[in-house]
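As noted in the main text, all predictions were made from sequence alone. Below is one such record, for GntR family transcriptional regulator.
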Amino acid sequence: MRVPIVDGEIPPGQRMNIDAIARRLGVSQTPVREALQRLEADDLLVYAPGRGYRTTPVLDLAGLRSVFEFRLLVEPWAARAAATDRLSNPGAGLDAELRTFAEVAGGENVRQELLGHDTRFHAMILAATGNEVVQSAYASSHCHLHVFRLSAVDVNGERTIEEHRRILDAIRECDPEAAEAAMVEHIRSSYGRSAQVFHTPRPDLRVDAAGGVHASRILG
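Prediction:
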């Protein structure tokens, strides 16, 4: 399903007129309000009393770095954990998800397909850890939605398929070290691709390859 806010068809700061949307779609205001509330929960809209809904700003470079620092703290650990427990190994599900996306990669709606695939692929790895607190914190960040609001560099999904395949292979083979390393590489590579939209030197992520935070990087 296409999301015009993610695609940039509805710009940041745009006021959402509920009555106008309802008339355009030929529906009552009730389903429109429900849809806007869901988008607010995804942090794509913000509501102000007396002013209604407006689309939220897109990430700036500092915000993008913060998103990927959070991911670098959480996801390498999740990949390692997913590759450790053979009973809950998500390899089969990850493989099916990757195969499904590979069939549509390069198609007309690849940007939306890539958003859905990327979200599901990483969520499956988080779910395999069995840690509901981590899953909830990750889901509430809506990181994929906000990154995809920036201009996509991996326009046909080929790089993502390659990197996801390396993560999948390591998890399916129950190789925790390789799974963690593949996830670190993927997140850093994705950050680099996303940051290109700013056409300025990107700051390093303030997290090391093992997921540790360096105080000197934060304070300095």
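The domain at 61-219 is CATH 1.20.120.530 (Four Helix Bundle (Hemerythrin (Met), subunit A)). The longest strand covers residues 45-48. These features were considered when defining construct boundaries for the mutagenesis experiments described in Section 2.9.
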